[in-house]
Design goal:
Blueprint: E1 2-3, H1 22-44, E2 48-51, E3 58-62, E4 65-68, H2 79-87, E5 91-94, H3 98-105, H4 119-130, E6 134-142, E7 156-167, E8 170-178, H5 187-202, E9 206-210, H6 214-217, E10 222-225, H7 226-237, H8 249-254
Parallel strand pairs: 8-9
Antiparallel strand pairs: 1-3, 2-3, 4-9, 4-10, 5-6, 6-7, 7-8
Helix pairs in contact: 3-4
């Protein structure tokens, strides 16, 4: 795996504080825009940031082989997951809680004592989101517990989600999470199914899962060499697309077709 600089430059500063002068706010806006440009430049060359631990500096990395999730009929959805999507158990939204999603993804989980998402990475992706270059899909359940996981109205609680970066007609998936203890079993997988149908509608041609693992394999992910990935990325990022309004019924309607035959 190739490694690049330890962090994007310039680094983002804290958000403008209330009472700042107009000139100071313009300065902060300019710095934020510069950070966004630098991150997108690195992504356009095939890099993405990771940290060895929460308190470690971020580094730009580029795997020798890249995992891609297919956006055509090769995208696999198991029978049980199809049923879960069709059930409508989760309320699925887009870009309703981006910062909550990335912070949830940054929490340690089963088999993962630490995280690769540090505070700098959270700040960078939040800037990308505000600039319209990063998006999230969220899964909610009715809120009967209250607490920090509730939506702004307090009616729903966040139980899963994912986020990623758009670059032309490419979507670079970054991370996902589920909260089974709150009833969110498979919530991140349901979000991914909805994401794929949304990306198809948007005209996205490349879904980058970065590193292949058992989780990506279940959706039919394939690995390509770095040179092939960079060629596909170069073709995709030059295509201008508009991020369409999210329609959670797209995936549900598509999966109402008969289940595919069981694999032997």
């Amino acid at each position: 795996m190739a490694r690049g600089p330890t962090q994007p430059e310039p680094r983002p500063r804290a958000r403008a504080r209330a009472g700042q002068t107009e000139e100071a706010e313009r300065y902060e806006d300019a710095r934020s825009a510069a950070v966004v440009r630098e991150i997108l430049r690195m992504y356009s060359q095939g890099w993405f940031p990771m940290a060895e631990a929460r308190d470690a500096p971020a580094q730009w990395v580029q795997p020798n082989r890249r995992a891609l999730i297919p956006l055509d009929e090769s995208f696999r959805v198991s029978r049980s997951l199809r049923a879960r999507v069709r059930s409508g158990k989760f309320v699925i939204r887009c870009d309703s809680a981006f910062e909550q999603v990335i912070r949830a993804c940054a929490q340690p989980g089963p088999g993962r004592a630490d995280t690769w998402i540090n505070d700098d990475i959270i700040a960078w992706y939040t800037l990308l989101h505000r600039a319209g270059h990063a998006h999230s899909i969220e899964a909610y359940l009715p809120n009967n517990r209250g607490g920090a996981n509730a939506d702004p109205n307090g009616e729903l609680m966040l139980v899963g989600g994912l986020y990623g970066v758009t670059l032309g007609a490419a979507f670079c998936g970054e991370s996902m999470f589920s909260r089974p203890s709150l009833g969110g079993t498979d919530a991140s997988k349901v979000c991914l199914v909805h994401l794929v149908h949304h990306l198809r509608r948007a005209g996205v041609t490349l879904l980058d899962a970065q590193i292949q693992n058992a989780h990506t394999d279940q959706f039919g992910a394939v690995q390509v060499a770095r040179t092939k990935y960079l060629k596909l990325l170069g073709e995709a990022r030059t295509k201008g697309i508009a991020w369409p309004e999210f329609d959670p019924s797209l995936a549900v309607r598509a999966l109402k077709r008969p289940d595919p035959p069981a694999r032997g």
